[in-house]
Amino acid sequence: MQTIRQLDLLRNGIADLRSDGSRIALVPTMGALHAGHIALIEAAKRPGTRVVASIFVNPKQFGPNEDLSRYPRKELADTRMLNEAGCDLLWMPPVEIMYPEGFATNVSVAGVSDGLDGAARPGHFDGVATVVTKLFNQVRPDLAYFGEKDFQQLAVIRRMVADLDMGIEIIGVPTQREDDGLALSSRNIYLDEAERAKAVALPRALGVAARAIQKGDDAEAALAVARESLIAAGFVIDYVELVDAETLGRPDAGRPRRLVAAARLGQTRLIDNLAVEPVESA
């Protein structure tokens, strides 16, 4: 696996990967890799496709009171994991290449960015859309893979790619979970032992609510039960909502829906989501 930090070398590296007619698949990450990231690499390893991963801790998607300085950085371990997973090229640019002096452009995606995490973390999705646009322009992939755990991020990127005619196939990969159901996340390392034991309440509450809604129970009542169980477990809730799976707006029982949640245990903010299938017929 090549590890590249300069843009001119990246262009050459991508050209080499394409020289045999291969397509390029991009897996963007912020490092601190875990099995969820490796599942993205594995999904991208299709015949005739070369896999490029990026590691860049993007300052533009962190708010003033968020954990940019604390965000885990594990360059050696990450490089080893990607190499062992069969990644072909690692793009690991420094901040001054991504945002050189005088950088003045912002990419904003209205609608899908506005609620949920967009409301809880103002400016976050502008930072995501801007850095992903840069990564797409640098790597010029044919496909890009993102985890469904960050479901709103996936919706933002899909909308952006469609609106800007980028011609990149965006593929969502199902959330990878611990044995007890907790979604894998780089931020899970912030949980102490007691918090980790409580954290499983999040996927369990969503599972109960999703099953209730799917069989036709009142959605608002199911959401209220989920919120109550999370508060009882020690969470401080940002949101627990049922949304349209594409627009993230008001859900329609005839369209794909998603149950989404964000809540805090101590200093750690966890997110999760589950698909809600159509209402079961009697």
Characterize the structure shown.
Catalyzes the condensation of pantoate with beta-alanine in an ATP-dependent reaction via a pantoyl-adenylate intermediate. It catalyses: (R)-pantoate + beta-alanine + ATP = (R)-pantothenate + AMP + diphosphate + H(+). Pathway: Cofactor biosynthesis; (R)-pantothenate biosynthesis; (R)-pantothenate from (R)-pantoate and beta-alanine: step 1/1. This protein is 37% helix and 20% strand. The chain has helices at residues 7-18, 35-44, 75-85, 95-98, 117-120, 124-139, 151-163, 193-199, 201-214, 219-232; strands at 2-4, 23-29, 49-55, 89-91, 143-147, 169-173, 236-244, 257-265, 268-276. Helix 6 packs across helix 7 and helix 9 runs antiparallel to helix 10. Helix 3 links the parallel strand 3 (49-55) and strand 4. The model has no long low-confidence stretch (mean pLDDT 95). It has 2 domains: 2-173, Rossmann fold (3-Layer(aba) Sandwich), CATH 3.40.50.620; 186-274, Pantoate--beta-alanine Ligase, Chain: A,domain 2 (2-Layer Sandwich), CATH 3.30.1300.10. The strands form 2 sheets. A 6-stranded parallel beta sheet has the order 1-4-3-2-5-6. Strands 7-8-9 form a 3-stranded antiparallel beta sheet, covered by helices on one side. The chain has 10 helices and 9 strands. With 282 residues, it is α/β, with parallel strands linked by helices.
